[in-house]
Amino acid sequence: MAKERMLQFVTVNREMPEKRPAELRSQDFHEIYRDFAARKAVEQSSRCSQCGVPYCQAHCPLHNNIPDWLRMTALGRLDEAYAISQATNTFPEICGRICPQDRLCEGNCVIEQSGHGTVTIGSVEKYITDTAWENGWVKPTKPEVERTESIGIIGAGPGGLSAADMLRRKGFQVTVYDRYDRAGGLLTYGIPGFKLEKPVVMRRVEQLEASGVHFVMNCKVGEDISFDAIRGQHDAVIIATGVYKMRAVGGPGVGQTGIVQALDYLTASNRKSFGDEVEAFDNGDLNATGKRVVVIGGGDTAMDCVRTAIRQGAVSVKCLYRRDKANMPGSQRETQNAEEEGVEFVWLSAPKGFTGNGAVEGVVVQKMRLGAPDASGRQSPEVIEGADYVEPADLVITALGFEPEELPTLWGVPDLAVTRWGTIKADFRTHQTALPGVFAVGDIVRGASLVVWAIRDGREAADSVEAYLAQPASVAAE
């Protein structure tokens, strides 16, 4: 019976959940994809070929057992599908929404390679877990045995929260410290609601609180509490701060008002969605309403900015990127969504400087061409001399990527070893740092990366912490 329900990819075409029309979705911050109906989720899951070597699973950082939960969905056994999904992923409903499936699981689907169109894995993953929430299948963790050991986690983003979840399941006492007033990190304040509505994040935080995780918010390590104090209060510490320092743009006129960083802009918008008072938004500094907006960058953060500006009522939104569309680092799916919503992409363009007299009036744009490949194999952009022009702008948002903060200096911990890029040095298997009992996960180790990798790191680090605390004290101290 089960076999007959699967392998339907020859007769059933790939179909994504319906996307809300661009002219409607660009007016609000709600998610743009409608939910799968039960019938459609079953139908699309049945397209899975159940291949012997599931490349979708192999190319998922969490190695989610995708074929099995697709099969359970096709059979209508959603409670079992959720159990399988939750076994390897702390936040499947979040990954289903924001993972770049086109580059990971779906991009490596066997039937996609044979020309039949990939299984809509991400949409089904979202459907399974949303259904689990609706039916009350998602419960707070109740460990079989409470342990006395205490773990401190610095950072309430996806890496820290996934570690907290797994450690509570093991019975450890867990305290999470974070600089913001709400947990979630970039899930809360960096990613816009049209990709990830905030109640989805908040209900996971509430579940962790109900499971016994203690949160200490508005707490800046190095200012409100020292790193040494946290180490002294806990048997082990996990650093999961992420990378929040944005790369600066250069050139004449860069210090003028109206030139802002992407994270400041996105945080202000997300805070408004919570109903917070945000002075920099209300006075127009971080608000695109009625402005000509230019976003500099080509990654997913740049896509979040241009699509947010559209929703805020910008007069025009243009995105400058120094390479062409084929070499853009951001998700092609997000680029398409942005184009549908009215964003204009100016390919092979880079900022040279800015015009204005204290307040930005335009971006001096250098036209580029692609030359020889760089060290990564991508073609390096080269300036076309004499082709500069000025792009009018009232608001310029720079989205050039993230760098790690200088944690050893900020925290007064010179023995915390870092790489030449400023990321923390940690064993790639155990996530242990140079300091005994201190582990590090996510972007602060990898550099700016994907949420799914941070989740994996957090889960692995929880196992390593357990193993570390099981050692004799003399061995653990080495």
Tally of helical segments: 21
Approximate shape: globular
Question: What oligomeric state best describes the polypeptide chains here?
Answer: single chain
The first-to-last residue Cα distance is: 57 Å
Remind me, CATH topology of the largest domain?
Answer: FAD/NAD(P)-binding domain
Largest sheet, spatial ordering of strands: 3-2-1-4-16
How big a fraction of the residues is strand? 15-25%
What is the C-alpha radius of gyration, as a whole number of Å? 23 Å
CATH-assigned homologous superfamily of the largest domain? FAD/NAD(P)-binding domain
Q: Tell me what the CATH architecture of the largest domain is.
A: 3-Layer(bba) Sandwich
Q: State mean pLDDT (0 to 100 scale).
A: 94
Strand count: 16
Structural class: alpha/beta
Main sheet specs: 5 strands, parallel
Number of domains: 3
What does this structure look like?
This is Dihydropyrimidine dehydrogenase subunit A. Residues 152-458 form the FAD/NAD(P)-binding domain. Pfam families: Fer4_20, Pyr_redox_2. InterPro entries: DPD_II, FAD/NAD-bd_sf, FAD/NAD-binding_dom, GltD-like, Helical_ferredxn. The protein is of the alpha/beta class. It folds into 3 domains: 2-134, Orthogonal Bundle (Fumarate Reductase Iron-sulfur Protein, Chain B, domain 2); 150-243 and 404-476, FAD/NAD(P)-binding domain (3-Layer(bba) Sandwich); 246-401, 3-Layer(bba) Sandwich (FAD/NAD(P)-binding domain). The protein is 36% helix and 16% strand. It has a 5-stranded parallel sheet with strand order 3-2-1-4-16, sandwiched between helices. The chain has a 5-stranded parallel sheet with strand order 6-14-7-8-9. Strands 10, 11, 12 and 13 form a 4-stranded antiparallel sheet that branches. The radius of gyration is 23 Å and the shape is globular.
